[in-house]
Amino acid sequence: MAEDSDLERTEPASPKRLEQAREEGDVPRSRELSTCTILLAAGGALWMSGESLVRQLNHLLIAGLSMERALAYDSSMLFSHIATSLFDTLLAFAPIAGLLLIVALGSPLLIGGWLFSAKALQPNFSRMNPLSGLANMVSAKSGVELLKAIIKTILVGSVALMVISSQKNAIFGLALEPLKQSSAHLGNMLGVCFLSIVGALVLIAAIDVPFQMWHYANKLKMTHQEVVQESKEANGNPQIKAKIRAQQREMARRRMMAEVPTADVVVTNPTHFAVALKYKEGGVGAPRVIAKGADVVAAKIRELAAEHNIPLLEAPPLARALYKHTELGDEIPETLYAAVAEVLAYVFQLRGFRQHGGARPVEPSELYVPPELDPNNLIGATL
Hints:
Order of helices and strands: HEHHHHHHHHHEHHEEEHEHHH
């Protein structure tokens, strides 16, 4: 059952998966939205400029059919006359054509955005497979497209029938109007009828856009295993990273242990914590922490210190404070200067005793550690 769940596409597409799909030219698109916006723009332009457009075309038609006698005998003048008429006709339609071009280029911004993908232009011979073609013909997407075509035909046909029926008297009345007036009236009427019929496509587009977004998101869904694999590729294998971190910690611990024999003193808890301090006489700065650890690591630090005759001093509050408030290589906090100074004074006296003999120094027992630096005091205050 677990294997079956890993194969089910239940996870939403990751940003990387969406970016890959976009690079391959796969973005959500709604042909109904593009068709609707273009036809609405064309209908609006025809309604706004229909009267002037019909007048221009009427003038061009009259000018085109009115020819001088010389044009019939001079082919160069005839071709020039025809070329001028064609240019004037194209110029009359230029505003509408320019508007449609702008709308056609801008409509992709409504869903999916502009996209240019070189991969989409590469030949894909798998699309020539007749079996794949037959499978696409009976797919769920083809069924949805067929249903949309049927609904669109019924809806547009019904609206067209209603609009034409409401304009029936006006259409018959065109025959009683003068030519110029009827031409302008016809252009305005065509614009209103066209805009009303195309307006029915707004409902189709309003349904198709959410469906295309849902279909696109559903198509790019990922399995749980794909999500895990992508995370590994992006961030690295967690198991390998854990091993690397473990090795890094081990190397750092070994480097720290190598510094213990150079310490001046090891302050202990006595069993839970151990902190190795080193002070360079005559140097600049306070004593530094060169090694520290708890439990097993603390025991190893004490063992190395004993092997190399490094003094061990039991000072639980000081050991806890140093362990809590310092990192490797840090100087001790200023508030612990006095306590550590007593420790180092004892260490230097002990070193002199070992070299020259005399009275053995007494271990400091009452070292002052500010209460706020002792973790045990903080725990007690919290409780």
